[in-house]
Specification:
By secondary structure, the chain is of the alpha/beta class. It has ten helices and nine strands. The strands form three sheets. A four-stranded parallel beta sheet has the order 3-4-5-7, with helices on one face. It has a three-stranded mixed beta sheet with strand order 6-8-9, with no helix packed on it. A two-stranded antiparallel ribbon has the order 1-2. The longest helix is centred in the middle third of the chain and has 17 residues.
Amino acid sequence: MNKKIKEILNSLTLEEKASLCSGVGLWQTRPLEEKGIPEIWMADGSNGVRIMKPVNQERKQDTSDFLKVTDLTQNSPTITNQYEAVCYPSGASLASTWDTELIEEMGEALGDECRYFKVNLLLAPGINIKRSPLGGRGYEYYSEDPYLTGKVAESFIKGVQKTGTGTSIKHFAANNAETLRINMSSDVDERALREIYLAPFEIGVKNAKPWTVMSSYNKVNGVQMAENRELLTDILRDEWGFDG
């Protein structure tokens, strides 16, 4: 860890550390300007920057707009009040090219667009393994093949982060269905977990060093991912060396 970051962390009170786990609105972290910690702006997504138009000069979007959404067939602000941005091919289409150089080039273009919108962190790539035909987000993900998925993710991350924009590899791990995803448990034996579900993340984390990793919504073998010490600490940090 950078020496300056260590010094800042050591100077924080418990309350200030806890505040860094919260946000301001939906898409930015809470700053501690007196300690030299700025807010971090985030945006979706894997095949194009998705960000709402500003409601004032300081904020790119207003949380209350999202709370008004009840029917996506109406003039929802999430649909009608967004910046126009380039729409790139879906994850499935990208992986079908087998062209890692092209995907890295696309990532660089996405990173440049993020910088234009003053976005610090792109919440992508999504690299879950396609398992269920009923998974509504399957088009976002790259492949059923762990190696291909990992190499595509590696190229995407390298391209985006060339520009100084961070990435968030997601959803770690075994988030392979959308129905009841917050409550369900993906029960996976050790070999399948290592060879199928963790393999793409291992390739992406070790080879491309994404700034962040987003934990998945589901439980894995009965333990909620956001508090899964075996996966988040023992494997991700200690074994693979993730320091983001």
